[in-house]
TrEMBL record:
This is Ribonuclease T2 family. Residues 1-21 form the signal peptide. It is found in: Endoplasmic reticulum lumen; Lysosome; Secreted. The gene is 5568799. It comes from the Eukaryota. One of its GO terms (cellular component) is lysosome. It comes from Aedes aegypti.
Length: 319
């Protein structure tokens, strides 16, 4: 019986390795996110609206790091922050999202403000359809805002409110007035203090972590509003928050407090550009990596099958 228990334990360890490998591959493939999440229609009630601004230069770098084929769409004006979305949010949880499964995105409803959206709510991921970001944000988040608030119950109102908030609280102005300028490194505390001084609210700071260089880049700033469309503290939103003993309370961030945050002025070279490899060589490298991962998964599966057979043999021998 002891041998049987040992075999079962080994099977459990192998299964954990297999599950981790499988989950990693799922993280790399998110093209079906909208379709999968939209299967469940949620209760639209929420507590806050998270208005997320992104630094398009960092967003472009992150996009280009994922594939040598990725190209970016950047606003024609330099050094402007753009809009990622307006996200209805329940405190201490994520969502709601996709609150109306029958909703349809109609880009023609945005005709009066489309030129502004192309500049200030731009889809950095240029490989995708130009209106794909707007479609995603409306169906996932806008439908929930529309179900609860008359002020945001149409595409025109929802996206128009984002443009209004950007004009009032653009991070290029908020950070710039506090001396936080592109091309420099800052600490989380320095950025947090500028946001507190300018907005008088606790704001979330999001970094992009480059796995290759181990560097962190200023990526997004998330400003919260209540249902009266007034500025509100972001305390309670589900985010990686770090507690620091200071008068302002906690800092809401996923940034590493012990490392500088780079606020890039230009898009850094991607890892593919640094290698100077041809597209053909890069494609071959990706195929090789894919085959290697597939071989590892097959090897893990064979190990599980062999362990299963061993367990069955041990069970039979102990009868």
């Amino acid at each position: 019986m002891k041998l049987e228990h040992l075999a079962i334990f080994l099977a459990f360890l192998s299964l954990q390795c297999f599950v981790r490998a499988d989950s990693s591959s799922e993280e790399d493939s998110s093209s079906d996110e909208d379709q999968n999440e939209a299967l469940l229609e949620e209760d639209p009630e929420f507590d806050l609206l998270i208005f997320t601004q992104r630094w398009p230069i960092t967003a472009c770098y992150e996009w280009r790091e994922k594939s040598p084929d990725h190209i970016c769409g950047l606003p024609s004006a330099q050094n402007i922050w753009t809009i990622h979305g307006i996200w209805p949010t329940k405190l201490n949880t994520i969502g709601p999202s996709f609150c109306n499964k029958t909703a349809v995105f109609n880009v023609t409803e945005l005709d009066p403000i489309e030129k502004q959206l192309e500049q200030f709510w731009i889809n950095v991921e240029k490989n995708k359809p130009y209106d794909s970001l707007w479609r995603h944000e409306w169906l996932k988040h806008g439908t929930c805002a529309a179900a609860v608030m008359v002020q945001l119950n149409t595409e025109d109102k929802y996206f128009g409110q984002g443009l209004t908030w950007l004009q009032q609280h653009s991070m290029v102005d908020v950070l710039g007035e506090g001396g936080v300028l592109p091309g420099n490194n800052y600490t989380v505390l320095e950025i947090h203090q500028v946001l507190i001084d300018r907005l008088q609210k606790n704001i979330a700071i999001e970094c992009y972590h480059d796995k290759e260089t181990k560097q962190q880049f200023l990526n997004e700033i998330r400003v919260c509003f209540n249902k009266n469309l007034e500025l509100e503290n972001c305390d309670g939103i589900l985010f990686e928050d770090v507690f620091i003993d200071q008068p302002q309370g906690k800092i809401i961030t996923n940034c590493n407090l012990n490392k500088p945050i780079f606020y890039p002025a230009t898009v850094p070279l991607s890892r593919y550009e640094k290698t100077h490899m041809s597209p053909f060589d890069l494609h071959a490298k990706f195929l090789e990596e894919f085959k290697r991962k597939k071989a590892n998964q097959n090897k893990t599966m064979k190990t599980l099958v062999n362990i299963y057979k061993l367990i069955q043999l041990l069970k039979w021998s102990t009868i």
